[in-house]
Amino acid sequence: MLRRTFLTAAAALPLAGRAVAQTEDAPIKLRELYEGRQLSALGEDLLGERITVEGYMAPPLKADSQFFVLTKMPMAVCPFCETSAEWPDDIVAIYTKRTVDVIPFNVGIDTTGILEWGEYRDPDTGFVSMLRLTDATYG
Amino acid sequence: MLKGDPMKTISVSAVALLAAGAVSAQGLPQADSDWFVAGETTIQEILDRQPNTNTARNVILMVADGNGVGTNYATRLFMGQQEGGLGEDYVLPFETTDWAAALVKTYNINAQTPDSAPTAGAMNTGVKQRFNLINLGEEAIHDDCSTVEGNELTLLSEMMTEAGRSVGIVSTARVTHATPAAVYAKTANRNWEDSVPEDCTAQADIATQLIDAMEAGIIDLAMGGGARHFLPEGTDGGRRTDGVNLVERATGLGAQWATNTEEFEGLTLDGETPILALFEDSHMQYEYDRTDEPSISEMTAAAIEYLSQNEEGYFLEVEAGRVDHASHAGNLFRTLTDGAAFMEAVATADEMTDDSDTLIIVTADHEHALAFNGYCGRGSDITGLCYGIAQEGIEHTDEPNLGSDGLPYTVAGFLNGAGSVLVEQLPEEGETEAPTETETGEASPEESAPIYSGSRSELTQEEATDPDYLQQALIPMSSETHSGEDVAVYAKGPFAHLFDGTIEQNVIFHVMNHAAFKSAE
Questions:
Q1: A86-103: per-residue pLDDT in tens?
Q2: Does the beta-carbon distance from A73 to B458 stay under 8 Å?
Q3: Cβ neighbours of residue B466 under 8 Å, at least 6 residues apart?
Q4: pTM, rounded to two decimals
Q5: A-B contacts (CB, under 8 Å)
Q6: Nearest to B365 by CA among B105, B99, B91
Q7: Is the N-terminal amide bond of B286 cis, ω within 30° of 0?
Q8: Subunit contact B468:A29, Cβ cutoff 8 A
Q9: Candidates A81, A83, A101; nearest CB to B429
Q10: Is the CB of B454 inside 8 Å of chain A's CB atoms?
Q11: What are the structural domains of chain B?
């Protein structure tokens, strides 16, 4: 019935175990790709490479798309902090191989894809990103 | 010497030694204990207090948003541990005997759990207000512009201006956000930061009200975030749909304008030329993530230097706005790093002012749904796991305490929020909707709430103390909530001793009013 029963110890908590994707190298923390609002030295080194990044899937902007935003912490939406949805500065836009299968916003995931840097406006959502993982898989 | 004892913060005065000696003469076996001596010293310091009944030329109201008694406790431990101590015995800048203190009841007229708008309004007007509106009387209704007229309250800032004093605002949130807005704005909705409903003519939006107040000479200095509410759409992230550029209007009035550290350092702190310094489109960055913008302590110092030029005195409100936001996110680490930055600002304000003529008040507007587990040994990291209590010695054991599920748990947790251990269960591939409680027979057909379930994970100290960790929470919510629990108020300077016992939040205004005005009558 429930394909993803998000009550296993491995996947239930922020920063707890990761659900599926594993690569040979240990995943990178999302924050390690940024220095302030700029790409970090590590990020520079990894541009064009296929890497795995820890993070959380923000609630998708559009159903049945191949795009979601990876955040370093669960994307809490605070009505007293903001009058509308606000994106943190340090996020990664994810362009996936397959249509996105939604994962709750507070379940940690590993996402693997090719790291790209540079301004890009998503044609469907208008979302402007600087840092992306393309041809990505996640879980 | 006890490890983690209070002696580092308490000077052993001759009086204290005499007092301890006197007790020793009575033969108490504990009379030589450092704790006993320190206790006697504290009593003597309290006995030595003399009420300060001077008129307060200056009033500084410092609000850490969401920093109730529990959050303040966590910040105390965090700062002590950051400095290499165990934490529990650490003394925050206002936790010495030269500060008066009271507990504060924070509810709003119609809300057991308050929000930051009416709570800040209560402090700035002397009366409780209704949820989500600012500085309107009790007949006004949230989001109803028609109830604005006739319900506008007089503000402490206006009274200060009338008396020839200067007024400044410092916030790490947007300067149009609830707490700073309460210094100058009167609005039926705290969210009307850059616009009001089309048919609303009784009030302007909050950003416009700030520049109106600056033009009227009520606000002399405003530092914080929120530039987007002052700029027209299409201009540097501006959100104003009326096309008005309030920054140009302010600079046209002669105001100085700053957006980054370099421009901040270049401001002329002459006390005459108004200052509008907005370092972010929205809120300023968390202290942990801060780049190219001043700290709250640096802004406080600049504001005091600027406002002190007025010999008649000043009113300054300082808000650590992002303490609240980090708790809403469920990320205690940033709550505490911003809390520690606030403490530095308090120390700065205290150092730069004279108790004889400056009333400093340190408080919070409300608490959060933060709670603490037990039984943790001394020195357990306030952001990390709850370790056992040592049978011998002082510091905690190396073994984390376990719940009945056999898993470790953190010292602190939230009752609700994004860190919930209950996670939404999503549909099988090919299904269009998640199963609901209706399908499982656990809810009536009218209800179709998604199913949440989960359990706690094996948590390590490394994971729990990660700066991006969200403490475990119970009820799943997209944002952790405030709570109605009391906050504390601390004060020193003229009439600080009026803070005593348990008071309503609006009493804070009355102490400021008495110290600044009535005492001189």
A1: 788 899 999 999 999 999
A2: no
A3: A15, B333
A4: 0.90
A5: 128
A6: B105
A7: no
A8: yes
A9: A101
A10: yes
A11: 6-47 (no CATH), 58-368+482-520 (3.40.720.10)
